[in-house]
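ok here's the first one, seq then struct tokens
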Amino acid sequence: MVDSPSCVLCSCSQTQFWWEHKGFPFYCCSDCDLLFLAQTSLQEAMDRNKEIYDGIGQKVVEKVEEHQAGKREKHFAILRRLEPYRRTGKILDIGCGQGGFLRSAQERGWEPEGVELAPHLAKFVREHYSIPVHVGTLEDLELEEGSYDVIFFNELLEHIPQPRPFLTKVYSLLRFGGAIFLRTRNHRSFSASFCQEKWKELPFFSKGHVCFYSPSTMKWIFPQLGFRLRSLRTWGVSLHPRFASDTVGYRLAKVANKIMDPFAKIFRKGHRIEVLALKNK
């Protein structure tokens, strides 16, 4: 019998096998509730992750204007929430993609910077918006510590194989009282519980995701690293993937999604998690 690996977030040795996806075993931590890819498979998964993002970089650039137009008002809504934390005006978007959020921040008077793994995307943002974008992983970059008012990353944390060093680096880059704003997937959602095996077949599982979080994980890790949780919420229900081959069931589940969404918010069972946390003074 193979021993269970220690948790990649809290180092707890009490983990249990959760499931296997395309040959990659995932384990869940009994302490912090992180669902993570076993270390034995990590390098292979990350190599595949890099191939995916190197390949899609140019395709995304080709549709960038159409994509960003639909996101602009959503970005502005987030930036309005972050306005109380503006001091120097510096904001960093990690995994900035085609630069939509950076562009919106620029329009609202922020001094934006980005971090991006795909060279095609970084080049696009620099050339079209004159916004500095650093290519590489955050851990490998030499950025000024304590210099950012806000650090933002959307649907990124699930790609990070070693989340604790990553979040520690984020903490070091923020000024005291600065804010971290993130969104990621919730493996304790109604969607995950109801869809079961079908949840693993959703598109985001094929995009190099190696860690999945829950509200319990967030409540555990951020105080550990010196952050104060300002806001923790979830939203969104997707029950319909379980009925992909059943037309009637699929349609009924789509209706159920809307009915269940308010309960998902109340009980923090939505399939997306949003965290706003402040660096303690």
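and now the second one, same deal
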Amino acid sequence: MRVVTDNSEPAAQDEIAWLRDQLLRCQRLSTVGTVASGVAHEFNNILTTILNHAKMAQKPNVTPESKDQSLEKIVAASQRAAAIVHGMLGMARGSMRREVTDLCKLVDEALLLAGKDLSKHRVTVEKIYKGPVLAEVVPIQIEQVLLNLLINAKQAMPQGGVIRVEVLENSPLGLAEISVADAGCGMSPGDLGHIFEPFYTTKTPDSDNRGGTGLGLSICRQIIDQHRGRIRVQSALGKGSIFTIKLPAHIESARKAA
């Protein structure tokens, strides 16, 4: 427990900043926990793939071509496992330093972590990348926002559906944009005016007892505000929702990468 003995305004501001950082960290760890069961299931699938192909490669009558194919499958599965571990560790304890990052890659990393949980709930993802799209961000924070939006989109479609993720550079405005669209239940005009307020929620916990705290979108907006960006939503009851993140683009670097 942190104790402040100085009653001055600067000390109070320091305490508020510290508490805000702790809230961001707790929400990030909560997001990691949300996808953890799906990641564990994915690891089980990866290990099964490795074991089956290792057994095939050990058969006495295996041809050199079949053996090479099995070894390639083992290498590919191992690389996927390493990528998942890297993503989980990055979310849990990654650097808070800003760096020029391709937002398309951040979306891919978020989908790598959330993919199994989405497929479990019969949710597929359509990706539209017009990139590379570069921005100077804290990668784990933007990935945290993306995971939150993906989980919300999944919860809005309890019978399953399609999430559409688009990444593009709006050069005339100097913006890098990410949109996450679902075809779920949508929100009423009354709810739209409050969804970014702390503890305001339009949903109850799902079958896995997740969601409903009202902190996720509030923290998302806080993170995007800290990046000098904006987060907007379009929604209508029964017609789904589209969340759009707009960040200052690193346009000069993007042109060099193109």
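notes on #2: The chain has a mean pLDDT of 80. The first helix runs from residue 9 to 58.
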